[in-house]
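dumping this here before i forget
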Amino acid sequence: MKIVMINGSPRHGNVYAAINALREGAEGENTVEILEASKLNVSPCNGCNACECYKGCVATDDSNAVVDKLVAADMIVFGTPVYWWGMSAQLKTIIDKCYCKGALLKGKKIGIVVCGGAPTDDEEYELIRRQFECMAEFLNWDIRFFKAYYAMGKDSLAGDEKAVAEFRALAEKI
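structure:
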């Protein structure tokens, strides 16, 4: 299976550690590629509708290359820190740009990783989960997992052997 993981965090902290643990667990029988959202030159969708949801974007940046990788993937893993009760702007920009080939993204398997500074029963995680559930319903995505992690420090997850093992094990079940 071809898996594309998007690190929606501009830092190499908890989301990065979670994505890497998932990669380690998924590699072997799968091909895994990690995209660093903050390092991509993806402009916001301007709603021109020239793409007609399948033609691609008219922007001359990384938009089409990124979305083409998502279209070619069997599974997409979205990783994000919590920013103001939602996903990061870096990840949201990529998701918005998926509109340019939305018709080709139907039926994907997806996973979601969210790291935040509040306990995992806080509503911020539920708000992000619900947003992904709405997208999944519209695009007929199969949500394979939603994993939230509570972290007070930038590198909390990397030093949490139990959490790293949980992420690796989660990936083995993909």
